[in-house]
Amino acid sequence: MEGLERTGHMVEYQCRSGYCGSCRVKILEGSVTYREPPLAFLGRDEILPCCCCVEGDVRLDCGLAGEDEGLSDSLLK
C-alpha cells in the first residue's frame, strides 16, 4: 500500500489490515503472498495491497491520481 501511495496511485482503503477489502485491486501480472490470510473475500485475480507482500514485479489495474480511468494499467517494481 505504501508503495502505491508513494508513487501516486489511487487506491481506496479503510482498515489497512485485510479486513474490509476496500483496497482490493486486480492483479494483471506477477504474484503476491500474505503473512496471514486476509479476512476480506478475494477473487482469483484480486489482491489487497494493504497487507500483501509483492513477489518481484507486478502489474495492477489501478491508476495514477488525476489520470483518465481508461489508463489504469500500472507496473510496480
Give a quick precis of the structure.
The protein has 77 residues and is mainly beta. 6% of the residues lie in helices and 34% in strands.
Report on the architecture of this protein:
With 77 residues, this protein is mainly beta. It has a single domain (2-76), classed as Beta-grasp domain (Ubiquitin-like (UB roll)), CATH 3.10.20.30. 6% of the residues lie in helices and 34% in strands. It is built from 1 helix and 4 strands. The protein has one helix spanning 2-6; strands at residues 25-34, 46-47, 52-61, 73-76. The protein has a 4-stranded antiparallel beta sheet, with no helix packed on it. The two termini are 13 Å apart. This is Iron-sulphur binding protein. GO terms for molecular function: 2 iron, 2 sulfur cluster binding.
N→C terminal distance: 13 Å
Q: Please tell me how large the radius of gyration is.
A: 12 Å
According to DSSP, the number of beta strands is 4
Low-pLDDT sequence parts: none
List the helices and strands and how they pair.
Layout: H1 2-6, E1 25-34, E2 46-47, E3 52-61, E4 73-76
Antiparallel strand pairs: 1-2, 1-3, 3-4
What labels would you give this structure?
77 residues; Ubiquitin-like (UB roll); 2Fe-2S_ferredoxin-type; Iron-sulphur binding protein; 2 iron, 2 sulfur cluster binding
